[in-house]
Amino acid sequence: MPKARKILMFNNEFPPLGGGTGTVNLELFNILKNNKDIKIDLITSSGNAKKEFLQFSENIRIIKFPVGKKNIHHASNTELLRYIVKASFGAFKYNKKEKYDFIFVWSSVPAGFPALLLKIFKNVPYIVRIGGPDIPGFENRYKFVYKIISPIIKLIWRKAEFLTVKCKTEKEMIKAINDKLIIKTIYNGVDDRKFIPKNKKLSENLKLICSARLIKRKGQYTLIEAISNLKKQGIPIFVDFVGNGDEREAYIKYAKDKDVSEQIIFSAYVPREKMPEKYQSADVFVLPSFNEGMSNALLEAMACGLPAVVTDVGGTEELVDEKNGFVFQAGNVNELVKILKHLHTNKQIIEQLGKSSRKKAEQFNWRSIADEYMKLFNNIT
Question: Are residues 11 and 160 in the same domain?
Answer without folding.
Answer: yes
